[in-house]
């Protein structure tokens, strides 16, 4: 709760990345070791091919009986089969060993992103977070199964081939080594130039994603004010910036490959010259010189692979640092990171286990502002006793939603404390907040509920729907609880979306809850249904209700009236009405226009 509101999303350093990646890989160390062995076996088989051809050349040059060619011929066949077989095994084992780790990382990052304080997400731009969990995650996942596997295989082939060259004659190895300075130069230049280019490219992608997202999320406003042209121009500018980075990346890669070709030419020329000299002086048989040249030629592919995937690996490393950055965000407790991806319902378990405990809500010396210079809440003090229902009333803009968001932990307090308390002391129990618009995710009704509690059984889902009185209309849907709703599915009214949001909370079963529901028209059927749902849901829980209709306030145990981010009245409905202050005049205006009879005080 001490986190400043303006911390941008961090990028993890290499130590933090290793600390996250290492345990993920260690879980699959058996299969990864098998992959390594298969890679070594495939590379050794790869060397047997050129060796067999050198052997054949030697036999032909010395005019041996053609039957003797059967030996190297058989070796050639076995080597080819062995290389293909072991290569396949290695690729399969490597991706089996790596992909689960990548999937876990991705899930953990998305889970962490969902629990980040809104302020942190907004500070970095929503586009930044979206591009991390989509583009960057994709990049890392593709690199793990493509580039990384190719890199490991090629690297081992190079090491074993160099050893093979040296075994033939150390001078071959020396001649081949002439290519290394050119390669090293090419690689150094490439890495120095391309690193910032790729990082810049990813940043530009983030800006572009942000521009598109902003335009779409504000679509009604954009249309209403004819801002389409302006938004298109903004997106076009962001796309062009991203494209410019892409061009630079292609140019850099082309120069890099040209330099690698030069290095190959130098190395092969040196080996052929060395072979010629060594054979003519009789120091090395012809077959060995042929084998050496073939070994070296066989290095082209793996060297190009190793150097060529560097770019991809670098890009993936940049993406990995951005992914892990989300996980290491200072606003996240250690729990999000340590939680096994398999059991995402930790928060649920915690909520359920603390049910029945005396969880209250409090704000103490609370200060908050969306911007440093402008305080929205200042020195606000509030105690909601365990089991108490408190209604917040106030004009639009008085800070009701802001106070709710800070107490729910969605926004970080700038000063003081706000949040759940146990025996008066701050505690970590999550306090869910039901926002004004219940969001319907594209998926079945069941999936929409399971968000709150991933492992819940069908009976638990039914019970939650029953508690809030939504079971009737849900079972009347074409496929009942399995009906697809949200984007592309069965359209739900705002009230039904809100009803589902309440059912989600029922499933979560938290000891304390905050409701900010406004949508239903006072006196309408929808309002009555949602009121009943809220009443059933809140029974036995501590609750903070942002009352948009005063009948909601009248049912609460206590009411606070807010004005300009401060509490100006605080007491039970009846007392505040009797006191004849701000609440009393609000109430008389409201009950006059809604013809409401004074409801029974208390929530029963
Ligand atoms: N995301 C935000 N960024 C900057 N300022 C904000 C943001 N959300 C709200 N505000 C400002 O904070 C102040 C309090 O707003 P808040 O939404 O908390 O009031 P409210 O009483 O809940 O109003 P309403 O009943 O209209 O929801 C207002 O001045 C509002 O303009």
From TrEMBL:
<dbReference type="InterPro" id="IPR003593">
    <property type="entry name" value="AAA+_ATPase"/>
</dbReference>
<keyword id="KW-1133">Transmembrane helix</keyword>
<feature type="transmembrane region" description="Helical">
    <location>
        <begin position="147"/>
        <end position="166"/>
    </location>
</feature>
<dbReference type="InterPro" id="IPR027417">
    <property type="entry name" value="P-loop_NTPase"/>
</dbReference>
<keyword id="KW-0472">Membrane</keyword>
<feature type="domain" description="ABC transporter">
    <location>
        <begin position="361"/>
        <end position="589"/>
    </location>
</feature>
<dbReference type="GO" id="GO:0016887">
    <property type="term" value="F:ATP hydrolysis activity"/>
</dbReference>
<feature type="domain" description="ABC transmembrane type-1">
    <location>
        <begin position="33"/>
        <end position="315"/>
    </location>
</feature>
<keyword id="KW-0547">Nucleotide-binding</keyword>
<keyword id="KW-0812">Transmembrane</keyword>
<dbReference type="GO" id="GO:0015421">
    <property type="term" value="F:ABC-type oligopeptide transporter activity"/>
</dbReference>
<feature type="transmembrane region" description="Helical">
    <location>
        <begin position="260"/>
        <end position="279"/>
    </location>
</feature>
<dbReference type="InterPro" id="IPR036640">
    <property type="entry name" value="ABC1_TM_sf"/>
</dbReference>
<dbReference type="Pfam" id="PF00664">
    <property type="entry name" value="ABC_membrane"/>
</dbReference>
<feature type="transmembrane region" description="Helical">
    <location>
        <begin position="172"/>
        <end position="191"/>
    </location>
</feature>
<dbReference type="Pfam" id="PF00005">
    <property type="entry name" value="ABC_tran"/>
</dbReference>
<keyword id="KW-0067">ATP-binding</keyword>
<feature type="transmembrane region" description="Helical">
    <location>
        <begin position="68"/>
        <end position="90"/>
    </location>
</feature>
<dbReference type="InterPro" id="IPR003439">
    <property type="entry name" value="ABC_transporter-like_ATP-bd"/>
</dbReference>
<dbReference type="InterPro" id="IPR011527">
    <property type="entry name" value="ABC1_TM_dom"/>
</dbReference>
<protein>
    <submittedName>
        <fullName>ABC transporter ATP-binding protein</fullName>
    </submittedName>
</protein>
<dbReference type="GO" id="GO:0005886">
    <property type="term" value="C:plasma membrane"/>
</dbReference>
<dbReference type="GO" id="GO:0005524">
    <property type="term" value="F:ATP binding"/>
</dbReference>
<feature type="transmembrane region" description="Helical">
    <location>
        <begin position="285"/>
        <end position="313"/>
    </location>
</feature>
<dbReference type="InterPro" id="IPR039421">
    <property type="entry name" value="Type_1_exporter"/>
</dbReference>
<feature type="transmembrane region" description="Helical">
    <location>
        <begin position="31"/>
        <end position="56"/>
    </location>
</feature>
